[in-house]
Queue: 2 jobs
Job 1
Amino acid sequence: MKLLVTGGAGFIGSAVVRLAMERGHQVINVDALTYAACLDNVAMYADDPNYAFEQTDIRNRAALDVVFAKHRPDAVMHLAAESHVDRSIDGPGDFIETNITGTYNMLEAARAYWVAQNKPESFRFHHISTDEVFGSLPADPSVMFSEDTPYDPRSPYSASKASSDHLVRAWHETYGLPVVLTNCSNNYGPYHFPEKLIPVVILNALAGKPLPIYGDGSNIRDWLYVEDHADALMLVLEKGQPGRSYNIGGENERTNLELVQTLCAILDKKQPKAKGSYLDLITFVADRPGHDARYAIDPTRIRTELNWKPSVTVEEGLEKTVQWYLDNEAWWRSLQERHGVGQRLGTKG
Ligand code: NAD
C-alpha cells in the first residue's frame, strides 16, 4: 500500500513510518518540521526507494494538493498536530490553525483527490486522535471511555482535537469520504520528545535534577507503548469499518506518582546513583490548570471487532524505554536545546 503519513517526523508518526516500512509499504512522510519534529527518527529510511519526505505544512492547502497529485496515495494516516497540552495553554492559536484548519485542509485535499480517482472504495483517511476529547473520568475503575462517551474536551489541545474529529465524521457523512478514526491514551516509548513526562523524568534523573510531578501525582493515565499503538493503527487502517472510530488503550492505568516511582526503580537497577535512590529527586510542583483527573480506555471494541490487545505491560514498556534513552544520548541531547524544552510551561491558566 502507498501511505501518506502526516506528522511522520514526530513521536507516534515516526513509529508508524518505521512499522509501515518494515512491513513493505511505500510511505510518503508529510511534515512541516516544527520544534517537535526530528527527522533522525526515520533517518534509517532516508535513502530507501519506498520512502519519500515532503516538507509541507498542512495549513497550506495548495501545497497539499501538489503532494496528493505527485504521490497518489492509497490511504492517508493523519497524525500531524500540535500535541503538547502545556503549550496549548500558553499559546492556543497554533493548535487551532494546525489541528482544526490543518485537518480541514487535509480532508479537502484528500476528498478532491479521491473524487478525481472516481471515489475508490478502498481509499482510507485515518484520523489519529486522543482520548482527551472525552474529558476527565472519576476514580471509579468501572467507568471508562468508550467510543460512545460524549465529547467533553477541557484544554485548548483537546478542544482542537475534538473539533478535528467532528470534521472528519462530517466529511464521511456528508461527502462519503471513507474515514476511520482512533482515539488513544497516553503514549510512551523510544523517540519521545523530551518535553513530555516520561522522557523528562528519565533525563532529569540522569542529570541529577528534580523529577517534577504536577499536583499530588494522583492523576491517572492509561499508558500505551508507542510501538503497540503503531501496530493498532495499521490494523484499524486495514480492517476498520469506514465511518467507525476505535479507542486504543494500553490497559495499564497508573497514577503519575506510581509511574515515576516505577521509572526510578528501573533507573536504580540500570544506572544506580552514587548515593541513595532516584526516588529522592521526586518533587511536587504546581498543578496544570484544568488538569484532568483520570483517563482510561474501555478496549472492548478493538478487542472484539479487530482482535487487538497491547503486547506489553507498562513495566515492560518502561524498561525498554529507559534502556533506549540510555543507549541514545546523542538523539536526546540535541533536542534539549530546542525552544521551551526543560522549562515549566502552561502555568498561565
Ligand atoms: P508530536 O508533537 O511528537 O509530532 C507531531 C508532528 O507533526 C511533528 O513532527 C510536527 O513537525 C508535525 N506538525 C505539526 N504541525 C504541523 C503542520 N502544521 N504541518 C505539518 N506537520 C506538522 O506528536 P505525537 O505525540 O507524535 O502525536 C501524533 C498524533 O497523535 C497527534 O495528532 C496527537 O494529537 C495524537 N495523540 C498523541 C498522543 C500522545 O500520547 N503523544 C496521545 C493521543 C493522541
Note: The mean pLDDT is 95.
Job 2
Amino acid sequence: MVEKRLFGTFGVRRTANDVLTPEFASRLAASYGSIVQGTVAIGGDTRTSTPMLKQAITAGLLSSGCDVVDLGILPTPAIQYAVRNYYDGGIIVTASHNPPKYNGLKFVDEFGIGTPDDMELEVERLYFDDEPTRVSWDKIGQIFTNESLIDEYIDETLKRVDVEAIKARKLKVVVDCGSGAGSFTAPYILKKLGCEVTTLNCQADGFFPGRDPEPIEPNLQDLINTVKDLGADIGLAHDGDADRTICIDEKGNFVLGDKTFALVERQMLKENGGGIIVTTVATSQAIYDIAEEYNGEVIATAVGDLLVARELKERDGLFGGEENGGLIFPDFIYGRDAAMTVAKILETLVKEDKPLSELIGELPVYYQEKLKIECPDDQKQEVMSNIAQEIKDTTDFKLDTTDGVKILKDDGWVIIRPSGTEPIFRCFAESDSQDKANEMANWGISLVEKYRK
Ligand code: MG
C-alpha cells in the first residue's frame, strides 16, 4: 500500500499554528471538499486554536464548492451523528485527549465514519501533487448553522434508554468534562436523567486549567476524591472531544476501559438476546467469555476505532468497542460515543440494582502486561513473518495475523504489533495470572529479539 503522508489513525493531528496553520488546514479542507462536493458539517472542541482552524477549513471548503454547516462547539460523536443523518461529510476540529498545544482535523465520510484509506490517499494526492478544486465566483459555497443539533443529539441519546427508570433512582453523580466539549452535553444529559449532579471542570476552557484532557487515573484524582467525599454512586470523566467515558465506582476506584466495555456488552446482549459484537484483536478474552454466555458472536478487526465502526456497519452489528473504553452503539453513531456510554451505564446500574463495584466484580478477571521493544521500520514485516512461521512450524498454538502476530495458547495470548508511528513493536499479553501474563509478554519480546537484526 502507498504510505500516507499526513493522515494518522483518525485524521491529522499536529501542533496548533506551528505545523497546523490556517494555510495548511484550509488547503487540506479544500482537498477533502474537492472529493465530497456537497454539504459538509463542521464543529470542534474547546481548544484555543479551534476557532482559527474552523475559519480556515470553512474557507477551504467554500472555495472547493461545498456548503458548510457550522455546528459550533460540541462532542465529536454529535458531529458524526449529524453527518450520518443530514450531510455529505464532516470535519471535526479536535486533538481528542492530547495536551492543549495540539489540535487536529478528523474527517468523516457520509456515514459519519472516519474516512477510509483510499479517500485519505486521494486527499493527500490533491494536497501535495495536484490542486484542489477551486470553483468560479458564482459556485462558491454558502455557510449555514444548525443551532438545534446539540439538543437533538441529547434527545436521541435519551431515547435509547429507560429515562423514567433512571430518574426514579435519583443517582448521585459527579461528572468531570475536563473543560472539553462534553461541558455542553454531559451535565444536561445527567440532569434530564434525574441525577443529583456535581460538576468538575465543566466550563469550556482551551487552557484546560483543571486537568489534562486525557482521562487517565493520575489526571482524575479530584474526581476520585469528590466521589468519595460526597458518597456518590458514580464518577464520570470524558476526554477533550467527549467520545470516551471513564468511570469511577462508588468506592472511588478507577474502572479500566475494558471493564466498562465488558459490562455494557453484557447488558446489550442480555437486552437483545444476543448479537454481533465487534472489537479489535487487542481486546480482552472477557469480551469473548461474555459473548459465549449471552449468545453473542465476536468479530475482531485490526486496531482502530474506525475499523470497528465500519465492520459494525457492514455486519449489522449490535455493539462494539475498544479496550480503552471507547464504546460504539451503531444504531445511533458509527463512532465512539461518550454520552450513550453514560446513559447505558446509568441504566445498567438501575436495572441490575447493584453498585458499580459489585457489577464490575461479576465480570471475568484476566491479567495483562504491556511491553515494547525497538525495531527499525524496514525490518518489521520480516520479523513478523519469521515469528509467524516459527509458531506454525514448531507449535500447535493458534495464530491470528489480522494486525501483527497474535499467538493464542490455552491459558492466554500475546499479540506482537508494529507501531504505526514509532520504530517499535508493542507486546501485549493476557492470561489468568499476572505471572503468566508477564511471562508471555516477555516471550513475545524474545521472539522479536531473535529475528531483529
Ligand atoms: Mg477522543
Note: The longest helix spans residues 434-451.
